[in-house]
């Protein structure tokens, strides 16, 4: 018999299960980067559920089991994950990874995602990006980089992604199966924006390389792009 699976939470059920005190993933000892990443990846979407079940080439079944049975299943079933379960995962990452401080230090979410997706599970990169006609790069998530912009007080995710791609001269080589985006709102010292409005849908039409788009003047297929 295979491991028990719980579908991701949707709509009214998500509100019922996840709202209130003692809900979500319990924080402990600088775990916020991992708690937020795990909640985002698994609470209300199944797009990365292959991470929980697939026998990937490098797959460490012990880490996969902890992720599935001690974190994702309780989160979807009860809306709550104990800090001890996340610490169990952090201890395994410390053993498996090149870095010894996953159990106590604050990390960048990208470091955690690269370790668990690439080195521990062996998943193919989720994103293919190209900058200014150079060789394409593969990665697992995209971190928004941009200068402070006075006209953006409370931005939404769509605005941030578009401006970040524009400032770095980036394009998506293909439509990603999963687009993990790290907001420019992290660390204890600096917050670029006090709030960011989640975009419930992301329009990536203008971010795709060589994708046919309409001319803003005549409506025909565009032949030139002005940044």
From TrEMBL:
<keyword id="KW-0378">Hydrolase</keyword>
<dbReference type="InterPro" id="IPR018200">
    <property type="entry name" value="USP_CS"/>
</dbReference>
<keyword id="KW-0963">Cytoplasm</keyword>
<dbReference type="InterPro" id="IPR038765">
    <property type="entry name" value="Papain-like_cys_pep_sf"/>
</dbReference>
<protein>
    <submittedName>
        <fullName>CYLD hydrolase</fullName>
    </submittedName>
</protein>
<dbReference type="GO" id="GO:0004843">
    <property type="term" value="F:cysteine-type deubiquitinase activity"/>
</dbReference>
């Amino acid at each position: 018999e295979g491991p028990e699976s719980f579908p991701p939470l949707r709509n009214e059920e998500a509100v019922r299960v996840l709202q209130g005190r003692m809900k979500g993933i319990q924080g402990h000892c600088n775990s916020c980067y991992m708690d937020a990443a795990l909640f985002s990846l698994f609470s209300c979407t199944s797009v990365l559920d292959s991470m929980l079940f697939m026998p990937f080439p490098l797959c460490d079944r012990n880490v996969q089991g902890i992720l599935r049975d001690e974190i994702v299943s309780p989160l979807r079933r009860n809306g709550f994950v104990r800090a001890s379960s996340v610490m169990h995962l952090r201890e395994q990452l410390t053993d498996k990874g090149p870095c010894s401080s996953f159990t106590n230090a604050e990390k960048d979410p990208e470091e955690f995602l690269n370790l668990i997706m690439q080195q521990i599970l062996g998943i193919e990169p989720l994103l293919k990006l190209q900058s200014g006609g150079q060789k394409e790069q593969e990665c697992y998530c995209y971190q928004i980089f941009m200068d402070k912009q006075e006209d953006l007080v409370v931005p939404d995710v769509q605005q941030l992604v578009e401006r970040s791609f524009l400032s770095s001269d980036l394009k998506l080589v293909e439509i990603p199966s999963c687009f993990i985006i790290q907001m420019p709102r992290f660390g204890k010292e600096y917050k670029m924006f006090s709030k960011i409005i989640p975009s419930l849908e992301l329009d990536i039409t203008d971010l795709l390389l060589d994708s046919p788009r309409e001319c803003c003047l005549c409506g025909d297929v565009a032949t030139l792009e002005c940044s």
